[in-house]
Amino acid sequence: MLQAAVALGAVPLAGCEGSPPAPAARPEPPPSSAPPPPPAASPSRTALPAEVTNGPRDKPNVALTFHGQGEAAQVRALLGELEKGGARVTVLAVGSWLQAQPDMARRILDGGHELGNHTQTHGPIASMDSARAFAEINTCAQLLKRLTGSIGTWFRPSQTQHATALIQAQATRVGYPTCLSYDLDSLDYTDPAPAAVVSTVAKSVQNGSIVSLHFGHATTVTAIPEILDRLRQRGLRPVTMTELVS
Questions:
Q1: Domains of the chain
Q2: pLDDT in tens, 89-113
Q3: Looking at CB atoms within 10 Å, which of 66, 148, 193, 212 has the fewest?
Q4: pTM of the prediction?
């Protein structure tokens, strides 16, 4: 609406903008019937592919991305550690978890983090038919919209690192043209010692890395301060996914 108004305002109207008044004996000619030029396209970030596995390799930014479901107190502790370390992250929330703990949506956003979609029930979406996959994505999207006013920018499929063509098509239907993958799996969900999670991340992280991490694991909470220290030592800055690809 605003762009259209701007475009229309750029076309001078007959008899305006300093035109002399028409003599009384001569009627003013009718305005041109030619349509106004179309509004200019709105600026947008560079188009992304159907799936993103990493960000630009020429910038010292990384995205810590969290599969989102877990006990509330533990999640709050993890978010607190991230914020003490100056990290902004992207949380891909499971819808059923947000239904049970709706205040967590606001807690994540208030911490400067980004909130996205990780399906409604965290089922094996790669083995679902199109109707069920759509329902999994859309149900979580509508919950996010009710809680935050937006479906969020990012969708990560559940129980698979990479989206199939079917998943990509259903995600696009819902409003997520890009599925979010990753190039560095911390393996924190296997509950190794915290030092092992730190080592896995520190060994492979690089400019543009998208790191897969999880809520719901005490190991991850313990490992986060050291992970952030290692990133700082390497000159790497943890940012949200939107910041990573901007």
A1: 51-245 (3.20.20.370)
A2: 999 999 999 999 999 999 999 999 9
A3: 193
A4: 0.81
